[in-house]
């Protein structure tokens, strides 16, 4: 399950050199913008570090685990996610964050068919598959088939609700708390909360 | 399945309008982004922070205006690079000639 | 049709939770947020989401024209002739006020 908790290394400057025209275009534009004073190399490094610092395990998973143990927080999170998340010390980045609660009756799953909208301040950069043509095209048409590919088999008694995140809101799924975790600490619970479960393609890990 | 949407008499907005089209299995391979991809990612964030793009819609509009053939061939951050360049040119921050010249010297320098 | 700028967003939303609405099917070549599969479809308002910059304008850097945003809930069995799943399966999509009509 390495993909659930990707162990990220800082990107190295000496691998995967650009080859295509558009790859070079990105490098060229970045150089020119710095030379013209739009931002400094230091600001670029800091921004890259800022992005790298956001991991599902240290951000989104902590929000979910806290909601599992603190009923007041759960209610606030569902009502006004931005305020609730900021109270935990996380950046909501001025985007309207909406938390979708999975229940025994409803399973939520998120896609952005037109681009790749994603709750980056809680989950970091989206995985490649989230941005893929296959996921974006199929999830709205055959969500249960796609979920099965992720190993998620849901009975017909559970409503699958797809959320096409195409406009202004960003969505985080609040997965069901696994059974048999009643006496677990928040820290231990957070380890069950995978990135994929917060997108909604899987459920949380079971102990 | 795409016929089903077309049969309703509606047109796809552009190459990015993928919802409901047929597709193969989702490739779930995970890989860390390359260094240049992280640079482009951070560059776009800084362009927003510095007011070159005041809204993500501007990045999206630039991506969506790519030729459909080009859109389908490019990777995610290649599209970002293309759109960021378009926005920077529109804002008068750089010219196409400057970009072309820099790409040429970068390519030459790495050979 | 785009209404005069003065009454784009009144103090009260035009639609409320549970109202039945239809998403406009009109074509538009430039940036907008209504995917083809949702055009012409009818559903119900699931949430009223406040006011946001109009995508058609902000995509070109033009600010200050706010439009109210809604989450519209569509039933999968309405969307697709053959849908494999539960008849209760649904899809929520954010649609701006100027792309909605009462249904």
The quaternary structure here is heterotrimer
Based on CA atoms alone, the radius of gyration of chain A comes out at 19 Å
CATH uppermost class of the largest domain in chain A:
Alpha Beta
Q: Any low-confidence stretches of chain C, pLDDT <50, length ≥5? A: 1-7
Give the radius of gyration of chain C: 14 Å
Spatial order of the strands in the main sheet of chain A?
1-4
CATH topology type of chain C: SH3 type barrels
Which sequence of SSEs, written as H and E, runs from N to C of chain A? HHHHHEEHHHHEEHH
CATH class designation of chain C: Mainly Beta
| Rounded average pLDDT of chain C | 90
Portion in beta strands of chain C: 25-35%
* Mean model confidence by pLDDT of chain A: 91
Helix count of chain A? 11
CATH architecture of chain C: Roll
Q: What separation lies between the terminal Cα atoms of chain C?
A: 16 Å
* CATH fold annotation of the largest domain in chain A: Nitrile Hydratase, Chain A
As a percent range, the share of helical residues of chain C equals: under 10%
CATH architecture of the largest domain in chain A: Alpha-Beta Complex
Number of domains of chain C: 1
Could you tell me how far the N terminus lies from the C terminus of chain A, measured between alpha carbons in angstroms? Answer: 14 Å
Can you walk me through this structure?
The complex is a heterotrimer of chains A (207), B (111) and C (103). By secondary structure, chain A is α/β, with parallel strands linked by helices. Helices cover 41% and strands 12% of the residues of chain A. Chain A has 11 helices and 4 strands. In chain A, strands 1-4 form a two-stranded parallel sheet. Chain A is globular, with a radius of gyration of 19 Å. Chain B has one domain (34-111): Cyclin A, domain 1. The longest helix of chain B is centred in the middle third of the chain and has 15 residues, at 35-49. With 111 residues, chain B is mainly alpha-helical. Chain C has one domain (14-102): SH3 type barrels. Chain C has helices spanning 55-58, 76-79, and strands at 20-23, 42-53, 66-75, 90-96, 100-102. Chain C has a 5-stranded antiparallel β-sheet with strand order 4-3-2-1-5. Classes of the chains: A alpha/beta (207), B mainly alpha (111), C mainly beta (103). At the A-B interface, helix 1, helix 2, helix 7 and helix 8 of A face helix 2, helix 5 and helix 6 of B.
């Amino acid at each position: 399950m390495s993909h659930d908790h990707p162990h990220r290394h800082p990107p190295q400057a000496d691998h995967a050199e650009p080859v295509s025209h558009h790859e070079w275009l990105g490098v060229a534009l970045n150089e020119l913008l710095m030379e013209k004073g739009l931002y400094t190399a230091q600001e670029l490094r800091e921004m890259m570090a800022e992005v790298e610092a956001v991991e599902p395990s240290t951000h989104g998973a902590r929000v979910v685990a806290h909601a599992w143990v603190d009923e007041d927080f759960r209610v606030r999170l569902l009502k006004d996610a931005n305020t609730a998340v900021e109270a935990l010390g996380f950046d909501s980045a001025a985007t309207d964050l909406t938390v979708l609660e999975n229940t025994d009756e409803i399973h939520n799953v998120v896609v952005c068919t037109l681009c790749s909208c994603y709750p980056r301040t809680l989950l970091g950069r989206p995985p490649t598959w989230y941005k893929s043509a296959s996921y974006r095209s199929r999830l709205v048409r055959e969500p249960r088939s796609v979920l099965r590919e992720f190993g998620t088999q849901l009975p017909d008694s559970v409503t699958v609700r797809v959320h096409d995140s195409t406009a202004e809101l960003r969505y985080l799924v609040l997965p069901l708390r696994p059974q048999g975790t009643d006496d677990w600490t928040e820290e231990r619970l957070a380890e069950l909360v995978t990135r994929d479960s917060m997108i909604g393609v899987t459920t949380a890990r079971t102990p | 399945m795409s016929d089903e949407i077309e049969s309703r008499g509606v047109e796809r907005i552009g190459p990015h309008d993928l919802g409901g089209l047929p597709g193969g299995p989702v490739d779930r391979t995970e890989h860390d982004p390359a260094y240049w991809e992280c640079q482009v990612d951070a560059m776009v964030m800084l362009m927003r922070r510095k007011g070159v793009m005041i809204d993500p819609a501007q990045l999206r509009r630039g991506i969506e205006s790519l030729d459909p053939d080009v859109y389908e061939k490019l990777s995610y951050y290649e599209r970002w690079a293309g759109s960021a360049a378009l926005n920077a040119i529109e804002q008068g921050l750089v010219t196409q000639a400057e970009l072309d010249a820099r790409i040429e010297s970068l390519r030459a320098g790495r050979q | 049709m785009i209404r005069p700028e003065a009454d784009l967003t009144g103090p009260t939303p035009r639609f409320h939770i549970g109202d039945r609405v239809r998403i406009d099917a009109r074509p538009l070549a430039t940036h907008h947020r209504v995917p083809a599969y949702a055009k012409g479809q009818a559903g119900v308002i699931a949430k009223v989401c406040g006011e946001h910059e109009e995508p058609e304008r902000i995509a070109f850097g033009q600010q200050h024209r706010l439009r109210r945003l809604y989450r519209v809930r569509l039933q999968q069995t309405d969307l697709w002739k053959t849908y494999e799943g539960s008849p209760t399966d649904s899809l929520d999509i954010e649609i701006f006020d100027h792309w909605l009509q009462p249904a």
